[in-house]
Amino acid sequence: MAIRTTVVGSYPVPHWLLGDSSRTALRDAIMVVLKTQELVGIDVVADGELNRFNPSHPETNGMIDYFVSRMNGIQTRFSITDLEKFRADQGVAYRSEPAGIVTGEIGEGTLNLPRDYDLTRSLTARTLKFTCTGPHMLAKVLTDRHYGERPRLAMAIADVLRRQLELVGAEVIQLDEANISGHPEDREWALPAINHVLGGIRGERAVHVCFGNYGGQSVQKGFWKDLMPFFNCLKVHHLVLEFARRGYDELEAFRDLDPHIGLGLGVIDIKDNAVEEPELIARRLEHASKTLGPERVRYIHPDCGFWMLQRSVADGKIRALVEGRNLFEGR
Fold this sequence. Notes:
Layout (H helix, E strand, L loop, with lengths): L3 E2 L17 H18 L3 E2 L19 H4 L3 E4 L4 H9 L11 E8 L5 H9 L5 E7 L1 H6 L1 E3 L5 H16 L6 E5 L10 H12 L5 E6 L18 H4 L6 E4 L20 E7 L9 H15 L4 E6 L8 H20 L1
Parallel strand pairs: 1-11, 2-5, 4-6, 5-7, 7-8, 8-9, 9-10, 10-11
Antiparallel strand pairs: 3-4
Helix pairs in contact: 6-7, 9-10
């Protein structure tokens, strides 16, 4: 089985989009990101997550705020008491304030993921990935004053996401979960919500897990082996995981991964401006192949999104990604 190249999601924002929020400027920016991926030969392209970029919330590139600011039942203005309650929560110390306060039943509000997909779909004929922040991640950055417990909150968010993603026809749909890596103990309530969303996806189902890229820094600590019970219960076709920054010593743990779940291997370090040599990418693939077997790795990709890097650096890294894969398969 050929190894496919893809990106995790975000891409550096073209400078003209910072000063022009028109639909035409957005369309042009997405087209540039797609064409850049096409020209170097990326197999599964994505929109750079520009559909949800907001210069007023640059610190997470819209990963959180785009979703919660549009859903009904979530307040995005906070009192001092709200902030004190949020800061008492565990596992969100990397944020200074909540993404929102849940004050009522969560509904879709003005969130319109099918519209975002339709715009991108019209700009490329290539195999397309659509990304969406998952219900565990979103539940963890909210202060709840309505549901009373996180499992109910996560499932309410999952209901909204599922109904929207049922209408998205992308060949690959990826849920992004960047908090579970440091909190494997959450799996009992995270799994039902994540699997509920995955169950509504028509195409190939993927879940991306990393240890954070908040301001170019890792924000979670933990080990892949502790997440194996979580991974093996996901209703997913493949995982999209961080390895380049962490190293590959933990690959051994993935011998316990359900063989029906494909492994996506991070081979590009997005926290380093140096562009990897194709030879390094090929060696990383060779090591994974020797450790887990020649058919185990189904995708290679960066560790996470590129949005913190300069465009010239990101462009060089995806070129190396494709050339490294080709070098490995040529051997």
